[in-house]
Amino acid sequence: MNKHLRRAAWLCCLLAMSAAAEDRFAKVEIKAEPVRDNLFMLQGAGGNIAVFTGEDGVFMVDDQYAPLTQKIRTAVAAITDQPLRFVINTHWHGDHTGGNENLGKADALVVAHENVRERMSTEQFMKTFNRTVPPSAPAALPVITFTDATTFHWNGDTVRVQYTGPAHTDGDSVVLFKNANVIHMGDTFFNGSYPFIDLSSGGSVDGLVAVMNRVLGMADDETAIIPGHGPLSNKAELTEQRDLLVSLRDKIQLLIDEGLTKEQVIAANPTREYDAQYGQGFMKPDLWTGIVYDSLTTQQ
After folding, report:
1. Which residues of 52-63 are buried (b: 16+ CB within 10 A; e: fewer)?
2. Tally of domains within the chain
3. Is 140 part of any domain?
4. In this model, does residue 1 exceed pLDDT 50?
5. Average pLDDT value over all residues in the chain
């Protein structure tokens, strides 16, 4: 095939992919749920978004997929006429960072842990899904990065973006709105389903438990917790999931200690009593058990 035919084939493939993406998101609705007076949670497709409004401008946490940017803008415009000034990425996955390029070109500053920029800058391979993720466009990359934490004094609140250490990935941050008493946990909390642990991106089950313990120490009974996926939550529900995660991790560890292989551990179905409630999402019980097995055996 000569170079002109190759280019034509590549363009056809790109157009087909773009059309498929548009079809996938055509019927998605962005729904805004009030969390506190001037803080909202937006749900559509992908990770939950936090929108914090006020005279200083809009402060957003995560931005879902690129084809949804205009719908997200419309939802924000229904809340406030203030401009979007900052976007925080809780980690690098495309369902949380896909809108970066569009919003960055509209003058929002994108902020994330330095590992987020590093992973978005380079080709990634997600072993769980056998998927290669190409580098993001330069305009999609965070323009401000940090190593441990950064604090915004914004809209009358103190907003702390805190790196968690490796958990869901190696670039996770949680965002604490101190005065509002709201915490956005990104994908260190999947409310109502088994949590995805991206081992290829440096995640670990023990790291995930550690983050949950850390957030529980920050929260009180009035704290609103925005999970990466699932409905708005609170300290009691996070405690329930932390306890579940610890229990299942320990069950799987016992099977490992008995010398069972990965296939044998999966066949033992250690999650069976919780599958009806937590195993109905994309993290199916066998897949999730295998991920936890891999996490525990690579940590030893």
Report:
1. bbbebbbbbbbb
2. 1
3. yes
4. no
5. 93
Q: Which residues of 37-128 form beta strands (DSSP E)?
A: 39-43, 49-52, 58-61, 84-88, 109-113, 124-126
What residues make up the domain containing 93? Answer: 21-235
CATH code of the domain containing 111: 3.60.15.10
Tokens 């089950």 identify what position? 205
**3 state SS of 224:** strand
Which residues neighbour 200 within 8 Å (Cβ) at sequence distance 6 or greater?
Answer: 124, 125, 126, 127, 128
- How does strand 39-43 pair with strand 49-52? antiparallel
pLDDT single digits (tens) 65-76: 999 999 999 999
- Per the listing, tokens 């915004």 go with 152
Amino acid type, 57: G
The pLDDT value given to residue 24:
84
User: Which residue type does 294 have?
Assistant: D
Question: Which residue, among 132, 124, 92, has the nearest Cα to 110 in the 3D structure?
Answer: 92
